[in-house]
């Protein structure tokens, strides 16, 4: 019993002291980014209706779609990783990514893009008679040829060196 007490005292001495410095506040650029009411009014009707799949109808409360949209558009706008959302107060990265996959499978973003094109056509006008497509598929100019030996494993037999 003396040994346990001594180990306990040693463990208390080696514990980290409490933090004395205040935490750095979150970056205002990330935490103040929100989907505007006007944009949300266009986006919300496109979202699929969520059905609770919990067998008893309960489960953890679902994160609101608007908070997830804030996180998704933040990731799409900045190009940051999904898990970087965990450091913001937008929503969790895994929740945003799961919701992004659900909405992408339901073609929400395609429909949203189409609505944006329609609204731009109404506001500015798109000359649909004149359309252009450009593309090129060529080798890289400095790519060169392969200068390595080709593998000859397919011709080797067992126990052949």
Describe this structure in words.
The protein is mostly helical. It has a domain of 99 residues. The chain is built from six helices and no strands. Helix 4 crosses helix 5. The longest helix has 16 residues. It is extended.
Structural topology:
Layout (H helix, E strand, L loop, with lengths): L1 H13 L13 H4 L5 H7 L21 H14 L14 H13 L2 H16 L38
Rg, please? 28 Å
The secondary-structure element order is HHHHHH
Share of helix, binned: 40-55%
Please identify the structural class as seen in this structure: mainly alpha
Q: Tell me how many strands there are.
A: 0
> What shape does the CA trace take?
extended
Q: Regions with pLDDT < 50 over 5+ consecutive residues?
A: none
**Mean pLDDT score:** 80
Percent of residues in β-strands: under 5%
Number of helices: 6
Distance between the termini: 66 Å
Q: Tell me about the largest β-sheet.
A: none
